[in-house]
Design a protein that fits this description.
Blueprint (H helix, E strand, L loop, with lengths): L3 E10 L3 E11 L4 E5 L6 H9 L6 E6 L2 E2 L10 E4 L11 H11 L4 H15 L14 H13 L5 E5 L7 H17 L4 E6 L2 H7 L2 E6 L9 E6 L1 H6 L4 H6 L6 E11 L2 E6 L4 E4 L11 E6 L5 E2 L6 E11 L3 E6 L8 E6 L9 E5 L6 E3 L11 H4 L19
Parallel strand pairs: 3-8, 3-9, 6-7, 7-8
Antiparallel strand pairs: 1-2, 1-4, 4-5, 9-10, 11-12, 11-14, 12-13, 14-20, 15-19, 16-17, 16-19, 17-18
Helix pairs in contact: 2-3, 2-4, 3-4
Bound molecules: adenosine-5'-diphosphate and magnesium ion.
Length: about 400
């Protein structure tokens, strides 16, 4: 176990290409931290700087409080698992897993003991004498993880380790990695992925990175927090749009009035919507974006503030139905999530209930207005019962 700190970390690649801008971040001992963001935002670059495979242009990288900027990879107490497992094809599973220890001249009995222990944890004991070509993709990835485990690192680094696996295996291996962290006595892990579902399901802490805009093309942190914090309190439009599928509906409008608990917004169609949040730092007339997640819209609402819209299209997934609705002004359709068996004829006009407590609001610069805390208490998710802080809770 080890803590990792980034202090004003910048990375400029040769040719004066700025890639990482001013990253400040603390990863605690034993934490499973996920770096997530669109392709090209600098996730791998950050991870490779921790590993020592990439120079740090400026700033300090600390492992357990010690600056390690110039320390070679082998002296950092880390082990890395890549997307491509890169096993040695001519070696058995056991020899692949013990390779780093043989390089370090560890005694044979100790190597065998470590390999056996890792094989047990990963349930590959029956595969130890096979060659990589005799394994499935999932088994190979487990061997690659085993190779990292035998080194007993303080920090595990994973760079999109599941991208080469098919959908079913990805879910299974994802659960195995989360359980592995517990079995290993909570080793510290940094896990890189572009997949927000992987980030949500695995992370203690999510670090969401943005690629920047047209003028500033470098990765920077958009938000850091627990999965539920990012879901319920996205700090900006980027975070709001990145976490959640289908994406949060974002409707342009302007602020009409604001109290500490209630904001009235005239959306682009001229309709008025109330959001239960504090927009008092803005002036009436300020340009805003109102956000509401598809799963929080109540189709066929009675007694709720509602938008009346025509159904353009539906997608039936069995357990739920996505309803795409006409938007008078914006190019994007509004999306609502309904029950799987709800009748929603195309062309019909439906009343979409917009619960004021479910609304998000963003200012012209895309920064979120603060939402009250009490909506988390309203969640009543069974697995949150008894948890001391619902935002920190994670499925066991
Ligand atoms: N060796 C390199 N030299 C120059 N630019 C690079 C190099 N490696 C990566 N980049 C650029 O840095 C940015 C971030 O890359 P990367 O860290 O691989 O992103 P991610 O892992 O988030 O997809 C990209 O724009 C990429 O083209
Ligand atoms: Mg990458």
């Amino acid at each position: 176990m080890a803590s990792i700190s980034f202090r004003n970390i910048n990375k400029i690649y040769a040719g004066n290409i700025p890639v990482i801008r001013d990253v400040n971040l603390d990863i605690a001992d034993g934490e499973l931290c996920v770096f997530v963001g669109p392709s090209g935002c600098g996730k791998s670059t950050l991870l490779r700087m921790v590993a020592g495979l990439e120079d740090i242009t400026s700033g300090d990288l600390l492992i357990d409080g010690k600056q390690v900027n110039k320390l070679p990879p082998s002296a950092r107490g880390i082990a890395m698992v890549f997307q491509s497992y890169a096993l040695y094809p001519h070696m058995t599973v056991a020899r692949n897993m013990g390779f780093a220890l043989r390089l370090a001249h560890t005694a044979k009995a100790a190597i065998d003991g470590s390999v056996d222990k890792a094989a047990r944890i990963l349930q590959v004991e029956h595969l130890l004498e096979r060659k990589p070509k005799e394994l499935s993709g999932g088994q190979r990835q487990r061997v690659a993880i085993g190779r990292a485990i035998v080194r007993e690192p303080g920090v595990f680094l994973f760079d999109e380790p599941l991208s080469n696996l098919d959908a079913g295996l990805r879910v299974q291996t994802r659960i195995e990695i989360a359980r592995l962290q517990r079995k290993l006595g909570k080793a510290s892990m940094i896990y890189v992925t572009h997949d927000q579902v992987e980030a949500m399901t695995l992370a203690d802490k999510i670090v969401l990175l943005n690629t920047g805009d047209a003028t500033h093309r470098y990765g920077s942190i958009a938000q850091v927090g627990s999965p539920l914090e990012l879901y319920h309190r996205p700090r900006n439009l980027f975070a709001a749009g990145f976490i959640g599928s289908p994406k949060m509906n974002l409707i342009p409008g302007e602020l009409v009035s604001a109290t500490p608990t209630r904001a009235e917004v005239r959306i682009e169609t001229g309709e008025l919507l109330v959001a239960e949040l504090d927009a008092t730092r803005l002036q009436p007339g300020a340009k805003v974006t109102l956000g509401v997640r598809p799963e929080h819209i109540v189709p066929d609402a009675h007694g709720l503030q509602a938008l009346h819209r025509q159904v353009m299209w539906t997608e039936r997934l069995g357990e739920s139905t996505f309803i795409y609705l006409e938007q008078a002004c914006s190019a994007d359709a509004l999306i609502a999530k309904a029950k799987g068996d709800q009748p929603v004829p195309c062309g019909a006009t439906v009343a979409l209930g917009i619960p004021p407590g479910a609304c998000h609001l963003f200012d012209e610069a895309g920064q979120a207005l603060p939402r009250p805390c009490h909506d988390l208490a309203k969640l009543k998710l069974p697995w949150l019962q008894g948890a001391t802080d619902p935002l920190q809770a994670k499925v066991a």
